[in-house]
Amino acid sequence: xxxxxxxxxxxxxxxxxxxxxxxxxxxxxxxxxxxxxxxxxxxxxxxxxxxxxxxxxxxxxxxxxxxxxxxxxxxxxxxxxxxxxxxxxxxxxxxxxxxxxxxxxxxxxxxxxxxxxxxxxxxxxxxxxxxxxxxxxxxxxxxxxxxxxxxxxxxxxxxxxxxxxxxxxxxxxxxxxxxxxxxxxxxxxxxxxxxxxxxxxxxxxxxxxxxxxxxxxxxxxxxxxxxxxxxxxxxxxxxxxxxxxxxxxxxxxxxxxxxxxxxxxxxxxxxxxxxxxxxxxxxxxxxxxxxxxxxxxxxxxxxxxxxxxxxxxxxxxxxxx
Length: 321
Description:
It contains 14 helices and 8 strands. By secondary structure, it is of the alpha/beta class. An 8-stranded mixed beta sheet has the order 3-4-2-5-1-6-7-8, with helices on both faces. 49% of the residues are buried.
């Protein structure tokens, strides 16, 4: 991949109508309904511009890391109709988020306990009707997430990829959006399209980035830097780098075993990276919980990366601390 090709891809989409603000019918209802319900947990939406970035694998492992760190967490599979978090966590749930949408159940009602105390509100799979729900029905799930503070300190939401209505209903309602990309040009370009959409429709959002399947720490930083520069130039929005996850064949083996790699291969290079990303996410969550300004995370420089982080990560080569 050349810098010139990458630059054209991101600049083309920066100036294109794709990702521009769209009709917001029903979305204000979703957001306002959710905001009126207390107590509120910290809600982090994990998303991507396209499928195949490893978003759900990242979500499942971050859920494990947060739970192992002592937080009460509910992971919500909001990839409606194509849910797979239960598979990645080795669970066989009896209830799903459709019980929230259709019967008014709470997240606490449907969440079941999995590895290291992770509680999962599973999504439905194989139901085409779930992929195109009315905004009012989606609003019930948004409100349930926003009012789950009695049973969870953090709600980690695995959304669908792209900018469909079922996904943007969550991205517009909450203030912490975690974009997962890979070094692939299409993943970066589509990821930027999501960033652009969120920037136009959710000005309160703090946009976090993880580069998955990076060949090295340096590649992760370069990928982030390219997207971040375009975001600052065309959107006036900073992005905040949580880190990279190395391309590691053991991740695929852990998926096949239905055990998160943090648990069945804790010494793997990808596991070390996931712990680093998890620590960065914990910092972001702590800031949100104490009411810190959702601007640059404390200690980050003008490029959204902590001072000295570029040197520390690149000097270590491809490894993660």
